[in-house]
User: Which sequence fits this backbone?
């Protein structure tokens, strides 16, 4: 049996820069991989078998990991079998890129399991056909994403940093979040270029520049996001929303302080889930 990790990502900065003629949106974002991961297992089978430990997720169309397997089979012109077991840990509707990372793990995993010899360029092309975040998730690390988020520029990775992920009892669909942008005259102020420049300097400079346009867009409409944002602000550690939400991340200097933050979250008893993680590097 072969295992492939599917790491989550956070957005150190995310600015919405406009609506596209194809109905999607242009963004400017800086993404970084973290250690919170799903796992994808591959084992021999006579046909394509797909299983998942999360019974709420579809096992066919609508599941990006399954769609990735079908795409690879079509691309290589073969109908060989494989049993894929997806074990989820990344919460759905969190903005942590779990579905995209699962799809990327299937692309990497099948390339290895079936010894296909697909190049990096081929993997990225296939990833782009699955979703805007999937190309980043193929190799992870740290990168700036422009246009739909899929035009990538590699950036220096952060040194290993302690983080706490906090998820309120809420999930946010990306379509819902972008629809809110379309109905307002929103003009964001996120300094993506400042975050890019800070990555080549000291990590503390990155944390001072965190920002996400979706927080300003969605918090006034979602009391649970507003409530959690205020709680985190009062802790006085750098924090931000990731993706279109609903998860936040908090940057702390030490593991001990991460434990402290998690204890404060538990004491609130508001249904918030927390995960102690770290930044991680990519696959290259």
Assistant:
């Amino acid at each position: 049996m072969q295992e492939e990790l599917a790491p989550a990502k956070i957005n150190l900065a995310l600015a919405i820069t406009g609506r596209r003629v194809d109905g999607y949106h242009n963004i400017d974002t800086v993404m970084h991989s973290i250690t919170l991961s799903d796992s994808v297992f591959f084992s021999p089978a006579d046909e394509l078998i797909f299983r998942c430990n999360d019974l709420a997720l579809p096992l066919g169309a609508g599941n990006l990991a399954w769609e990735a397997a079908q795409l690879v089979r079509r691309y290589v012109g073969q109908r060989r079998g494989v049993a894929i077991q997806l074990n989820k840990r990344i919460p759905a509707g969190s903005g942590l890129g779990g579905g995209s990372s699962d799809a990327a793990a299937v692309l990497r995993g099948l390339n290895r399991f079936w010894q296909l010899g697909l190049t990096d360029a081929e993997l990225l092309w296939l990833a782009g056909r699955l979703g805007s975040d999937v190309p980043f998730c193929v190799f992870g690390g740290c990168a700036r994403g422009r246009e739909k988020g899929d035009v990538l520029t590699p950036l220096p990775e952060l040194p290993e940093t302690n983080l706490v992920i906090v998820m309120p009892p809420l999930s946010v669909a990306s379509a819902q979040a972008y629809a809110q942008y379309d109905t307002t005259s929103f003009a964001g102020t996120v300094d993506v270029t400042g975050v890019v420049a800070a990555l080549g300097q000291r990590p503390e400079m990155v944390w001072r520049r965190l920002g996400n346009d979706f927080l300003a867009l969605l918090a006034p409409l979602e009391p649970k996001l507003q409530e959690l944002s205020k709680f985190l602000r009062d802790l006085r550690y750098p924090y931000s929303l990731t993706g279109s939400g609903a998860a936040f991340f908090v940057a702390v200097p030490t593991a001990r302080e991460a434990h402290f933050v998690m204890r404060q979250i538990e004491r609130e008893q508001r249904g918030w889930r927390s995960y102690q993680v770290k930044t991680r590097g990519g696959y290259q």
User: Anything to note?
Assistant: The chain is about 35% helix and 30% strand. The longest helix spans residues 98-113. The CA atoms of residues 156 and 201 lie 10 Å apart.
